[in-house]
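Crash report, auto-generated. Payload:
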Amino acid sequence: MKINSIFSNFTPKDTKFIPLLKETASILVEASILLEMLYTSGKRHKELCQQIKAEEIKGDKVTGRISKALNETFITPFDREDIHALADEMDNAIDCINRSAQKVLLYSPENIPKSTVKLAGIIRKAAECLQDAVNELPKLKKNDQQIRKCCKEIKKLEEAADDVYEDGIMILFKEEKSIIEVIKLKEMIQELEMSVNKINSIGKLLKTIIVKYA
Amino acid sequence: MKINSIFSNFTPKDTKFIPLLKETASILVEASILLEMLYTSGKRHKELCQQIKAEEIKGDKVTGRISKALNETFITPFDREDIHALADEMDNAIDCINRSAQKVLLYSPENIPKSTVKLAGIIRKAAECLQDAVNELPKLKKNDQQIRKCCKEIKKLEEAADDVYEDGIMILFKEEKSIIEVIKLKEMIQELEMSVNKINSIGKLLKTIIVKYA
Amino acid sequence: MKINSIFSNFTPKDTKFIPLLKETASILVEASILLEMLYTSGKRHKELCQQIKAEEIKGDKVTGRISKALNETFITPFDREDIHALADEMDNAIDCINRSAQKVLLYSPENIPKSTVKLAGIIRKAAECLQDAVNELPKLKKNDQQIRKCCKEIKKLEEAADDVYEDGIMILFKEEKSIIEVIKLKEMIQELEMSVNKINSIGKLLKTIIVKYA
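Recovered output after restart:
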């Protein structure tokens, strides 16, 4: 375990993975900032959705570069898998944020409920926490407390999102008169909540990685 | 494979994981019993939902203790992962049961269709089968037949749930006059069916673990 | 990594896994051909759904045989897992195709929108690409370019499916007058799109396997 640790791959000889994982995390943050703008601004929807889609494509490309780099670098299979899984799950979260965004364009709901704005804010905060955790990866062996703290914070945000989700759905069924709007907004609220869950899944994955390498 | 088996971690020196996995399985069973009561009783909804939520929180805590224990125990990375995955998937099933329960409160449907009652019963039975399988884990190397039998039974229950789900949805679209009720009940039936699927996923995972260690 | 490669398990001594994986891939293709017929023909719905269900059961059985064979063959745990994961994800895709089919019977929508027909066609093409990739597995070590090419093609098909999905949903909300039809067709379009995603997930898994063994 000492020889074959994720840390040893991040020593001078193999410094390329940390920057690539950091790049993916920063795309996730960027997409989440744009998503929050989309849900708060009430305008420039098309432009913001295009920018989020552009981030999603960037995310795909970085994930591709990570795969390629893993393929060309001699490291043991085990670590490859963890880097791959981490890149993959960040990519999934970016995809989910993209879907949450595209639904605004796709469904053009008549109004944007408060719950969706709150959820978009939670997603942005969770993405930033996750970025903090990814930035701590090189120090994993010396100190895993910081990463644990970030994962805990993400878990708290996910719980807060649960409450916002519940309130949002309950208000929707009580107050929305148009059934078509109920259908559209219910799915948007659910997709946003799912985005928080996806970021929390990355947090869980980080905790599993810590279990193995710290 | 002999040296590095899950069984060796369950010998006197590392006896803590089996009790923790058993505890998670019993939380799953407890949550499923409460869920069945929720769908059959027609009253005390709030109280039952709170009790299920309490089980879900207990589940989170035990999973946390498993992570912590894995972190403090010297065992090989491979086995850690299996224990982690097992705890994680049981936690997912508990979460899904909790969501199935909370939807009763969240949506307050006008009536509880028979299909949901049947599905809740199947979930409870599947959870009990799974508990039986988890209780057999210490004997894995001597005899994996019992675990295989439990997994098979869970698979059968999942197939039965499929039929109940189909009938439930078909009846819903044919007989329910209120579209809002269709929306609510369709999602409740789907979430219940998903809970059965999640328990079946744990069964599949157990079979993968058997493949490696038996 | 040389000793413990997936390739070494496919040498004369352990030739059983490749045929079983190929069999699973051909069931996936068969199910997707029937699905396309179901969405294009407009008749024989019940018969086609039964045939697809029969493929799904066949898929379950082959996956079971793969598990059993893995259990009886001495190969290292690592490779077992990859074969297991590959079989499992193909099984998931077949399940999803089956669900996409059964919804035609279950929901009996008044009409079959063009988007669903297009999606069924994309699923069939993606399944065929995947089969091509699986057929290339024995040559993995000599040449992984062909598998990479298939995975890339599947990714493209998944992107095309995204566009069809978006158009389909948008048209549905704009033009469909019956809300019940909106509910039914939205879910059918989403399930079809999910089937493409599941096939793309197998493509992603293949790329991860390539990363390890090529």
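Post-recovery validation: Chain A has six helices and no strands.
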